[in-house]
């Protein structure tokens, strides 16, 4: 399957399974390969808190979504596999100013077993600086 076809399937999956507030993040899949996705998150006014920076809750929701899509990219038909987040540990390395336009997230599956999966997500600003990093554990249902 081509990368473009996988990207289309991941967008379709996101439209089917994401909660409405996740859809409001306007995430776009920029690149995908088995076990890895790159997403764009527009930094819009409704995601910026009173301090003038992208809020951590939006970052964490985008990171969690990136891993769900990275896991989806591993299934034979790229269908959503039921899972639940067991652990999402996020380090915020620098603030993301409201005027950056968008940030990029790269989610990678580190290991996918029969019942647990582990992942790593990096969020970067347009200048390539990492602004947040997370590790994740998912229970596969």
Question: Which structural traits does this protein have?
Answer:
single chain, 141 residues, alpha+beta, Thiol Ester Dehydrase, Chain A, 6-stranded antiparallel β-sheet, 3 helices, 6 strands, 26% helix, globular
CATH domain fold name: Thiol Ester Dehydrase, Chain A
Strand residue content: 35-45%
Helix content: 25-40%
The ordered H/E elements are HHEEHEEEE
Sequence stretches where pLDDT stays below 50 over 5 or more residues: none
Can you tell me the CATH class?
Alpha Beta
What would your notes on this structure say?
It is a single chain. The protein is of the alpha+beta class. It has a single domain (3-140), classed as Hotdog Thioesterase (Thiol Ester Dehydrase, Chain A, Roll), CATH 3.10.129. The protein is built from three helices and six strands; from the N terminus they run ααββαββββ. Strands 1-2-4-5-6-3 form a six-stranded antiparallel beta sheet. The protein is globular, with a radius of gyration of 14 Å. The model has no long low-confidence stretch (mean pLDDT 96).
